[in-house]
Amino acid sequence: MSRVLATEAEVVALSPDASSTKAAQGLKNPSKWPSLGCNATAAWGECQGSGSKPYQTQVDLSGPSFKCSCPSRKFPCKHGLALMLLRAAGQVADNAEPPAWVSAWLDSRAEKAEKKEAKAAAIAAAPPPDPETLAKQQAKREDKRWDKVAAGMQELQLWMQDMLRNGLANLSGDQQARQHWNTMAARMVDAQASGMAARIKEAWELVDSHPQWSRDLLVQLGHWQLLADAVARRDALGAETRADVMAALGWALDKAEVQARGQVVADDWLVVGLRQIEREGRLLERRVWLQGLHSGRIAWLLDYAQGGRGFETAWVPAQSYRGSLHFYPGQAPLRAIAGADIELLAPGAGAPLGEAAWRDALAQLSRRMAANPLQPVQPLWCGQARLQTSAGQWYAVWPQGAEAAALVPLALADDQAWQLQALGGGAPMALFGEWEGGQQQGRWRLLSAWQAGDGQAPWTNIWQNRGDVL
Questions:
Q1: What value, to the nearest 5°, has the Cα angle with vertex 166 and ends 164 and 170?
Q2: One Pfam family this chain carries (predicted)?
């Protein structure tokens, strides 16, 4: 039997929230499954629900990747979790022959993976084309798209000027304003700047969201102006800065090309944070944050799943993986793609987690933000922190001896904060999360917490944020 998700703790770590875990535990009974089976590559089963036909649940253990016929939009769903809990408990017959519906799914995944590998190999093995011809073709394509983007950004600037002239306060309570913002977002899609469209939709959610929303919205408009200025000056930008501008606009690079030509870093990678966000149209965005245990690099894996189909690969929080990551180009690059050699390590394998002092961590954050202010999300990792609440706001606190304590505001619900306080027992913790610079002061959205054991014991995960995972 494959070691992937071999223990109950590893399976529970993939649960999107506490309710899914509880529901999966309720289904961890073979009597609820008319059929069950697994082999070295997959696990499958049919779980009887409220309808006449049982739900067909299957897991590709090479990912692992989940698929289920139930209507749940959570990933993995309670049926997938229950199936893997049964397998971890030894209640699923091994070396069984998969039914046709499982074999068809596995074959389609294998075929898709082979095509991806073949495409990447072809790009890597292809003889280099004539540089002059290639440069002319690429320049022609880019110039055509830049013209569309530039026209869209000019229109956006005029729209922002009208908005500021009328006053941001007039957006409050305006029933037609949302439609105007959606129209401008659609215009950005037409201008081939889908990343700008997403920024517009997210910024609208600030309106009337809290007493200082107009201040935070003005910060967003400043970011848009910076991006518009960068588009206007694109010919004067360096290659890496230009790549950052393209990424901010939603100018996607071909993954096979990134895998074949991107900067490659081999390491043991610890999953220090995971967040799933549901977007419009049943689109599920997943952010996986990895810490290189030898290189010290932080990587951001960004995946999408449409219509409940699930992700190609599952990443287990607080587990280590060995292999290579291919980084996208840019200043202070974070986003990466996992290489084909990535494999899950046994629990406890890999180097111990290091500790980052708050001054060093904030200095690193400042350098990354200065190198690429267009990056929509930034990681922040600090050690020796405690939590403190004041006037309804939670803070991460680092004592400074005779000096005043360093305080960083947190995006953390009360129930999550109190749970973390209890789990930490008042001792210092290493905290990881996403720095949200959309507000004037910025906030730190915690995704995980860690504490060191006695002596030379590695840091261990004591808490994962399940509140943001849908």
A1: 105
A2: SWIM
Two tokens, residue 254: 């071909």
Confidence of residue 470 (pLDDT cuts 50, 70, 90): very low
Per-residue pLDDT averaged across 372-399, rounded? Answer: 88
* Pairing state between β 42-47 and 55-60: antiparallel
pLDDT at 4: 63
> 129 phi and psi, to 5 degrees?
-70, 170
How many angstroms separate the CA atoms of 270 and 75, rounded? 21
Average pLDDT, the chain: 85
Tell me: cis bond preceding 64? Omega within 30 of 0 counts: yes
In this prediction, residues 8-29 reach a mean pLDDT of 84
434-457 burial: b if 16+ Cβ within 10 Å, else e? bbbbbbeebbbbbbbbbbbeeeee
pLDDT digits (tens, 9 = 90+) for 196-255: 999 999 899 999 988 889 988 998 999 999 999 999 999 999 989 999 999 999 988 888
Indicate the pairing of strand 35-38 with strand 393-400.
Answer: unpaired
Spell out the long-range contacts of 142-146 with Cβ–Cβ below 8 A and sequence spacing 24 or more. 145/192, 145/251, 146/231, 146/234
Q: How many CB atoms lie within 10 A of CB 250?
A: 17
pLDDT greater at residue 398 or residue 232: 232
Evaluated on CA atoms 421, 424, 427, 429, the torsion sign reads negative
Long-range Cβ pairs for the range 217-222 (8 Å, 24+): 217/168, 217/171, 218/168, 219/437, 219/438, 219/439, 219/440, 220/438, 221/160, 221/163, 221/164
Tell whether the torsion through CA atoms of 120, 124, 127 and 132 is positive or negative.
positive
CA angle 396, 267, 14 (to 5 degrees): 60
**CA–CA gap between residue 36 and residue 187 (Å, rounded):** 50
Nearest to 92 by CA among 48, 54, 47: 47
Average pLDDT over residues 102-106: 91
Cβ count near 60 (within 10 Å): 24
CA distance 37 to 101: 13
When pLDDT is cut at 50, 70 and 90, the band that residue 439 belongs to is low
DSSP conformation class of 351: P
Residue whose entry in the numeric block shows the structure tokens 């046709």: 100
For residues 256 and 164, give the distance between their C-alpha atoms in angstroms, rounded to a whole number. 43
Cis peptide before 76 (omega within 30 of 0): yes
Over the range 341-359, which residues count as b (16 or more CB within 10 Å of their CB) and which as e?
eeebbeeeebeebebbebe
Helix (H) or strand (E) holding 143: helix 131-166
Distances (CA, A) of 463 to 37, 112, 178, 446: 33, 36, 38, 10
